[in-house]
Design a protein that fits this description.
Helix content is about 40%, strand content about 25%. By secondary structure, it is α/β, with parallel strands linked by helices. Strands 1, 2, 3, 4 and 5 form a five-stranded antiparallel sheet that branches. The protein has a five-stranded mixed sheet with strand order 7-9-10-12-11. Strands 14-13-15-16-17 form a five-stranded parallel sheet, with helices on both faces. Strand 4 and strand 5 form a beta hairpin. Helix 2 packs antiparallel against helix 3 and helix 9 runs parallel beside helix 10. It is elongated and about 105 Å long. The N and C termini lie far apart (about 75 Å). About 30% of the residues are buried. The mean pLDDT is about 85.
Length: about 450
């Protein structure tokens, strides 16, 4: 078998440039979408040109060919295009998610308050509990939307992810006719991840794999420690990584769909959203990782995720439970939305705190300054990060620190252009509570800074 030139998009063979030069007697070039298939089946994107070699009388006595391997350049261009598409979608989706989370904060807060006044076992208690659970599911949905936005930065922590991989895959396959076989070493390296987002990636990949095998079957999930270097052709920094591979033995991915599978809203499934793989791509990208796919149509498909390994120690898990922790103290709440100020004020009152309110950062700074000069200063501040047309929490907390270097500020937001929610201490905050939140989550956040 000899080397062949094909069109990357159509798969059709391209005329040999030597033949063209000899026939036409002029220099020729290939189209930008030319692929060279070597004798061993290796495919390379190439850019080339051919020109005739003439003797003293002008007769063609040969052909000179110049081939340039542009495979990595093409891959980089495709990665950039995918990133641009997600960035455009992020501008729109981030704003929608922010507004929706504000509304959801009011709904969830009021439901959690009402539930406290109902008796367990009563019909109204059960209805409120169901409504609160539905709000939590809606919160997961807005988090998926936020993944596209510039404010959807992962909230990282160092963790062992073996259990996360098993739990996410098993949960995604609940009730299906597909099972997952795991190959995860005991010495899998730690990674620095947002566990919720990575669980979402694994869930999306497992669901995709399951749908590729409608008659049932086995999905293989492999995790391994690898050291990346430039010889492997993986667009990552050299060094230690954890590689996670999800393989199904289903219908595979056809050539015409291969370049578009990570595009937002692109789907070949009836009733599909086209967001699953786009979300997975965006999350992995934000973790400084890489996601790749290989497929043999009619046989199998493997998605591989590469995440940088961490040398940090894994954090101990916090205790969790249904107990609502109250307290005492004077709390300043800054939010531009009245419905948020109202519901947070009610929750604080039930928790045992006294609340005062500001519509933006400038007003919050003035109120805090006056309180510092009184006999009853504020014990803590809860501030919205983004205030349209006004001073937000990021700037306000710097000014508060000038007034009181020991200020205890909690940042709260449903969306942000800055990575403050992911690294709040770096910006001067003591804790974080992401919108939407219920009365227990608010109580826990205050207890952590005031204990």
């Amino acid at each position: 078998m000899r080397d062949r030139l094909i069109d990357e998009h159509t798969g059709e063979q391209i005329e040999d440039p030597v033949t063209r030069v000899l026939r036409d007697g002029v220099a020729v070039g290939l189209a930008n979408n030319t692929v060279l298939i070597a004798k061993d089946g290796t495919k390379r994107s190439i850019d080339d040109s051919g020109a005739p070699i003439r003797d003293g009388k002008g007769n063609i006595m040969g052909v000179v060919l110049v081939f340039r391997n542009i495979t990595e350049k093409r891959r980089a261009e495709r990665e950039l295009l995918k990133a641009d598409k997600l960035e455009s979608l992020g501008v729109l989706s981030g704003g929608i998610a922010h507004d929706f989370n504000n509304i959801l904060t009011s709904i969830l807060g009021n439901i959690s308050i009402a539930r406290m006044f109902a008796k367990p076992g009563d019909k109204i208690f059960e209805r409120l509990e169901e409504a609160e659970n539905d709000c939590m599911r809606a919160r997961v949905l807005t988090q998926k939307i936020l993944t596209f936005s510039r404010g959807g930065a992962p909230i990282m922590k160092t963790a062992f992810i073996s259990e996360l991989l098993r739990d996410s895959a098993s949960f995604a396959l609940s009730g299906s006719n597909v099972r997952c076989e795991f190959s995860i070493p005991d010495d899998l390296w730690r990674v620095e991840v947002d566990e919720g987002q990575i669980a979402q990636v694994i869930s999306n990949l497992i669901i995709n794999a399951s749908q590729a095998m409608p008659g049932g079957g086995v999905i293989n999930l492999l995790a391994e420690n690898i050291v990346v270097d430039e010889r492997q052709g993986i667009p990552l920094n050299n060094g230690r990584h954890v590689k996670i591979s999800v393989t199904d033995h289903g219908i595979g991915i056809s050539k015409e769909h291969f370049q578009q599978i990570f595009d937002p809203y692109y789907t070949t499934k009836r009733g599909g959203s086209g967001l699953g793989l786009a979300i997975a791509y965006s999350i992995v990208k934000r973790h400084n990782g890489y996601i790749d796919v290989k497929s043999i149509p009619g046989k199998e498909t493997t998605f591989s995720i590469y995440l940088p390994a961490s040398s940090k120690e894994a954090l101990a898990e916090k205790e969790s439970g249904e107990k609502i922790r109250g307290g005492k103290g004077k709390i300043l709440v800054m939010d531009d939305e009245k419905m948020i100020r109202d519901v947070v004020g009610d929750m604080l009152g039930i928790l045992g705190y006294e609340a005062e309110f500001a519509k933006d950062g400038a007003e919050a700074v003035e109120l805090y300054k006056k309180a510092e000069q009184s006999v009853r200063p504020f014990d803590a501040v809860i501030m919205d990060l983004t205030v349209p047309g006004g001073m937000g929490g990021k700037e306000a907390v710097r000014k508060l620190a000038e007034i009181d270097p020991e200020v205890k500020a909690i940042v709260s937001s449903g969306y942000s252009d800055d990575p403050v929610m992911a690294d709040f201490r770096k910006y001067g905050f003591s804790n974080v509570v992401a919108k939407p939140y219920n009365i227990k989550e608010l109580g826990d956040a205050l207890y952590e800074v005031l204990k």
